[in-house]
Amino acid sequence: MAKTTLVRQVPPELAGRRLDQALAELFPDYSRSRLQQWIKQGRVTVDGAELRPRDKLSGGERIELQPVEENREECLAQDIPIHIVYEDAHLLVVDKPVGLVVHPAAGHHDGTLQNALLHHDANLATLPRCGIVHRLDKDTSGLMVAAKSLKAHKSLVAQLQARTVRRRYLALVQGRVTAGGTVDAPIGRHPVDRKRFAVVPKAGKEAVTHYRIAERFPHHTLLRVELETGRTHQIRVHMAHLRHPLVGDPQYGRLRLPPGASDQLIAMLRHFRRQALHAEKLSLVHPESGKTISWKSPLPVDFAALLDALRREYETQPDDDEDLDWEVVCLEE
Fold it and tell me: What are the pLDDT digits (tens) for 37-84?
């Protein structure tokens, strides 16, 4: 079998970083522990030389990596209904429903978005994770993009690393948020519960979340949230850090019933048992045309019904969304 060599150039923003840290940013499909192992095995060269994992980079170096493919179970195509909102020869955009896992992992060996994409287009099997370049949690709904070619995959990964892909979410949080703002707080594994994540000031990875108020209720706030980075559970962790956890979040919050609420609203809140988070808008540069294109997704039924219940309870009206810079533009196929 022919050896695969992956080549990257170290960008200026990674200057001063350890080699293993830089590799984790440049080759996000591989774990840091695996990359460290390959460095020690001589499978990584920096300007033709072998370095140690802890050696620092200056920026501009040429890195070559010869990965060892995993002996893993093949991801099988499965006929799972998915809503594709846009598709061309280079990429496709999916409106992921609540309850669909993005790719196979422990406890979810099939029945995932990746299985569904393979059924939709068998050629995606030639791409890393069938073209999937970012993730949404199982119970988060909304827009995701996947590449359909190596050129598009490289472009999308580069845009994510450069933080030029815009991803905006609607999040319903507990409590009354007084003003919008930015959370700049590193995220890492929870020091006690390893299944959760937390703000970890010293050992965490950089995580930046911007939020502003979309609609206020007496005991809840609907936020528009944009990610600058894309850490696991980032919005959920950051909102909990602000003591405004997402409604329904089973890991980072708990049920709070507003005083004096009607039986109908209490029933809605009790039965909303997943995080109230929806990836509403997505904007990126098309890898072929170079044009910026955007998409918007409507709220899923359960989230919309909960907002309607809050509006009826407190006799409020939704605010108009006047984001002119978020005009939804799709290319003609």
Answer: 999 999 999 999 999 999 999 999 999 999 875 444 578 999 999 999
Other CB atoms closer than 10 Å to residue 238's CB: what's the count? 25
Q: Which of 111, 120, 187, 166 is nearest to 295 (CA)?
A: 166
Q: Rounded distance, CA 27 to CA 21, Å?
A: 10
How far apart, in whole angstroms, are the C-alpha atoms of residue 177 and residue 184? 17
DSSP state of 299: P
Q: Cα–Cα distance between 193 and 179 in angstroms, integer?
A: 31
pLDDT in tens, 119-168: 999 999 988 889 999 999 999 999 999 999 989 998 999 999 899 999 99
Give the residue among 110, 175, 105, 143 at the shortest CA–CA distance from 294: 143
Count of all residues that appear for the chain in the document: 333
78 within 8 A of 68, measured Cβ to Cβ = no
137 assigned to active site: yes
pTM over 0.85: no
Give residue 32's identity as a one-letter amino acid code. Answer: R
Structure tokens that stand for 89 in this block: 């020869």
CA–CA gap between residue 30 and residue 314 (Å, rounded): 49
Query: What are the structure tokens assigned to 6, written together?
Result: 């992956």
Is 74 domain-assigned? no
Q: Is residue 70 part of a domain?
A: no
E strands present in 69-110? 83-87, 91-96
First to last CA, the chain: 38
Q: State how far the Cα of 208 lies from the Cα of 187, in Å rounded to an integer.
A: 9
Residue 210 domain boundaries: 166-326
CA distance 116 to 126: 15
Q: Are 202 and 320 members of one domain?
A: yes
Q: What angle do CA 192, 25, 252 make, to 5 degrees?
A: 30
Same domain, 254 and 285: yes
Return the DSSP state at 322. Answer: -
Would residue 73 count as lying in a domain? Answer: no
- Asked if the structure places residue 207 within a domain, the reply is yes
**Residues 95, 137, 139, 249: which is the catalytic one?**
137
